[in-house]
């Protein structure tokens, strides 16, 4: 997704040349699976040959190349050699520099044939092992527009670098809403402001389905904030009553439970002031009996 390949100049140039651009998904090297699989197969073949035969790996490259080009590929239904030349390769090959006088005896032919057969067996084993790894985690997955998904966080992707992920960083973040489907295996999601510098289209392997849970939804309360950035609380009930004794004076107080948009809290207020401001708290008529009843319950 380099800007040099997504710019309008590059698109217009390729359109003029008659070339069709097929961009891969960001942070998903498996999109170019043919090249990645070829490299991995050749690495496994080289590793197996070095372990069995010893010596330097560069001397085994001709045999590995011959084995790979003459092995059956299920993707094309034939070996690459047959696809290129239209016929199967029937004899082993030996590479030599032009002008060298090399005599191929039965012993050399037999040795080359044995090594090629060994490489073919190792290649079938590697292909079987790689297929089992892929099938173990492969499953059909599909999302719809409006669904919510988690985004996978890995240190080597743009998401991990943007979050400066470490070993103890959560493996998934979100959930984020899917905006639309791009192709068959990629989706565009709505990213938060701290991730807006990333490409918003991700491969399906980077997403994890979010199962809706009503307990995860936080309902917003309607708060009326004053100009001085304070919130007015409303009294819920009167919890207790007391008389404060001063020198030649008694002050009746009530314990008021405040609630509403803020968590419940209790304060002692002047009874006369509360009766004038909130008469509904004392409208029952038997206000003192209710207080005595609450004291008995406590």
TrEMBL record:
From the Swiss-Prot or TrEMBL record, give the protein name: Retrotransposable element Tf2
A single MF term (Gene Ontology): nucleic acid binding
Sequence ranges assigned to domain Integrase catalytic in this UniProt record: 1-88
Tell me what organism the protein belongs to.
Answer: Cajanus cajan (Pigeon pea)
Biological process (GO) annotations?
DNA integration
The stretch of residues making up the signal peptide is none
């Amino acid at each position: 997704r380099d800007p040099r390949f997504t710019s309008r100049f590059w698109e217009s140039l390729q359109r003029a040349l008659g070339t069709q651009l097929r961009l891969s998904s960001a942070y998903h090297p498996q999109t170019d699976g043919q090249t990645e699989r070829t490299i991995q197969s050749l690495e496994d073949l080289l590793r197996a040959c070095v372990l069995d035969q010893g010596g330097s790996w560069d001397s085994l490259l001709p045999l590995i190349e011959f084995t790979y080009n003459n092995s059956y590929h299920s993707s094309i239904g034939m070996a690459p050699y047959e696809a290129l030349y239209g016929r199967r390769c029937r004899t082993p090959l030996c590479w030599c520099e032009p002008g060298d006088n090399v005599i191929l005896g039965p012993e050399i032919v037999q040795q080359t044939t044995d090594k090629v057969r060994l490489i073919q067996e190792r290649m079938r084993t590697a292909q079987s092992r790689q297929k089992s790894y892929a099938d173990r985690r492969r499953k059909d997955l599909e999302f719809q527009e409006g669904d919510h998904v988690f985004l996978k966080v890995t240190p080597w992707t743009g998401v991990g670098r943007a979050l400066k992920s470490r070993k103890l960083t959560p493996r998934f973040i979100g959930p984020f809403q899917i905006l639309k489907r791009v192709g068959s295996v990629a989706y565009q999601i709505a990213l938060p402001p701290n991730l807006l510098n990333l490409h918003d289209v991700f491969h399906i392997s980077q997403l994890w389905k979010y199962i809706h849970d009503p307990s995860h939804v936080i309902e917003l309360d309607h708060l009326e904030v004053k100009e001085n950035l304070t919130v007015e609380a409303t009294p819920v009930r009167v919890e207790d009553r007391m008389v404060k004794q001063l020198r030649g004076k008694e002050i009746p107080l009530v314990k008021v439970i405040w609630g509403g948009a803020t968590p419940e809290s209790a304060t002692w207020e002047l009874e006369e002031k509360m009766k004038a401001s909130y008469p509904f708290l004392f409208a029952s008529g038997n206000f003192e009996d209710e207080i005595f009843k609450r004291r008995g319950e406590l």
